[in-house]
Amino acid sequence: MRLFLALWPGPGVRAQLHEWAVSAHAECGGRVLRAQTLHLTLAFLDEVDPARLPVLLALMQRTPLTPFALTFDHLGYWADRKIVWAGAPAVPESLIATRDAFLSQWCATGAPVVTQSFRPHVTLLRHARRAPSDPHPRSLVWHCDGYVLVHSVRTPRGPHYRVLAEHHGGPSDGFSATSPEKSAMPATQYGIVG
């Protein structure tokens, strides 16, 4: 199973980010990601044996995220990947601490950890031709109180996402998990189309 940890926006934040994507698309071209797929990747876990899923769920249950707010105030462009993204000027230490604690515990179980720098962003456009001429839209505040474990399912039309578990609140409060076969959020609902 191809898995990653992410911050998953609520409807209001999702709608605003999608509005930014549509606006940038008019100028930059490329492909707008569907609103339902917008997220901020905390850690890419790569291919994980399904038998290891209970270990991941247990780690999530004991690795809470202290609530915080992210202010998104600029758009960026990675020319080598042709991606337009939304970014925040500052990332709370609590977010980095939760991410690092989770990955440290996951590594301690013998799992390989993908080494990558943490550049918090939300991808808005893929295959974009250029950077937006106005990289400073009106600020958007995203209040976060948890994170999710996501299964990225490969299909001929691109990846589809299934949220397998989410954690909100303290070490055991607000934790819920679904089986990969019976996700509460169907993969097709989060498919990337285009």
TrEMBL record:
Gene3D superfamilies: Cyclic phosphodiesterase
Region ranges (Disordered): 170-194
Ranges in coiled-coil conformation: none
All copies of domain Phosphoesterase HXTX, residue ranges: 11-81
Catalytic reaction list: a 3'-end 2',3'-cyclophospho-ribonucleotide-RNA + H2O = a 3'-end 2'-phospho-ribonucleotide-RNA + H(+)
Entry keywords, A to Z: Hydrolase
Active site: H39, H121
GO molecular function: 2',3'-cyclic-nucleotide 3'-phosphodiesterase activity; RNA 2',3'-cyclic 3'-phosphodiesterase activity
Motif HXTX 2 positions after renumbering to this chain: 121-124
UniProt key word Hydrolase: yes
Pfam families: LigT_PEase
Function as written in the Swiss-Prot or TrEMBL entry: Hydrolyzes RNA 2',3'-cyclic phosphodiester to an RNA 2'-phosphomonoester.
Family recorded in the similarity comment: Belongs to the 2H phosphoesterase superfamily. ThpR family.
Name of the protein in question: RNA 2',3'-cyclic phosphodiesterase
Gene: thpR
